[in-house]
Automatic annotation (TrEMBL):
Pfam families: LCM (PF04072). This is Class I SAM-dependent methyltransferase. Keywords: Methyltransferase, Transferase. The keyword Transferase applies. InterPro entries: Ppm1/Ppm2/Tcmp, SAM-dependent_MTases_sf, TcmP-like. The keyword Methyltransferase applies. GO terms for molecular function: methyltransferase activity. SUPFAM superfamilies: S-adenosyl-L-methionine-dependent methyltransferases (SSF53335). GO terms for biological process: methylation. It comes from the Bacteria.
Length: 278
């Protein structure tokens, strides 16, 4: 058994790991992430404290992850030659194992050094041109460890809301300046939701603790505003969380809650996936 000790915000990766494990145990799994289940069984942790026991937690997280997987796969199919996948704030996500990219793909997982150490201990080596970088994504130097000689698809799930706007802007500018072309894929919240979460953090939000809610800083209302951050950056696509396919897999109470929430002011825009090209 492995012991895990992480900060509160980093610890959210245990909640998402557990959610993917629960999804893998379902009769009709969305991600089929059996590696996540194997890791959960090896880690000495009180998983009930993650707050992901509700059936809809596993489903909603799996559906969001599946759509980012699909966008990533779409990029790889559209660029069958040598490309780079840059997976930011990877945590214990097994995306590289789920997608099993061909040898022509250079895959780079980036997260804090202690998270990368944990990945080495818990996750199997995926093979191929795979590497890990231990650093905060906001540090200036880590990108120099990644060759910028290929088109890139950047995947950032559960990251942007924890950064300040200037940190996101600088990160995107550095990526666009480092690679010749590519796509940026990430999930985000609306500014309204971020403000409300910080004001009402004492309530908690499912598996999201008060400390995590107070760590949310950045939200997006108009994705096209980001186009002005870099020359050539172009808003390409969006998918609202309430429109993710297969929401009928949610329990009835969760489906009804999402439909009601989507009709409230700002409810529909509160969470979405965004795709940009450069």
């Amino acid at each position: 058994m492995e012991r895990v000790a992480l900060t509160t915000v980093q610890g959210t990766m245990l909640a998402t790991l557990y959610a993917r494990a629960l999804d893998s145990r379902a009769p009709y799994s969305i991600l089929g992430d059996h590696i996540a289940d194997e890791v959960v069984r090896r880690v000495e942790h009180d998983w009930s404290k993650t707050g992901t026991g509700a059936p809809w937690d596993a489903v909603t997280l799996a559906l969001r992850g599946r759509e980012l997987d699909r966008w990533t796969t779409g990029f790889l199919h559209a660029h069958p030659g040598e490309v780079t996948v840059l997976h930011l704030a990877c945590g214990l996500d097994t995306r590289v194992h789920r997608l099993a990219p061909p040898p022509s793909v250079r895959w780079v997982d980036v997260d804090y050094p202690d998270v990368i150490d944990l990945r080495r201990r818990l996750l199997p080596e995926p093979g191929g041109d795979y590497r890990m970088v231990g650093s905060s994504v906001t540090d200036e130097g880590w990108l120099e460890e990644v060759p910028g000689d290929r088109p890139v698809v950047v995947v950032a799930e559960g990251l942007t809301m924890y950064l300040h706007e200037e940190e996101v802007r600088r990160l995107i500018q550095r990526i666009c300046g480092h690679f010749p072309s590519g796509e940026l894929l990430f999930d985000c919240f609306s500014k309204r939701l971020v403000r409300m979460a910080r004001k009402m953090s004492w309530l908690g939000l499912g598996f999201v603790s008060r400390a995590v809610l107070e760590s949310w800083h950045w939200g997006v209302d108009d994705p096209r505003e980001l186009e002005g951050w870099c020359d050539g950056l172009e808003f390409a696509d969006e998918l609202y969380v309430v429109d993710v396919p297969d929401l009928d897999r949610l329990p009835a109470v969760a489906r009804i809650g999402m439909r009601v929430g989507a009709r409230l002011p700002g409810g529909r825009d509160s969470g979405r996936l965004l795709r940009f090209r450069f």
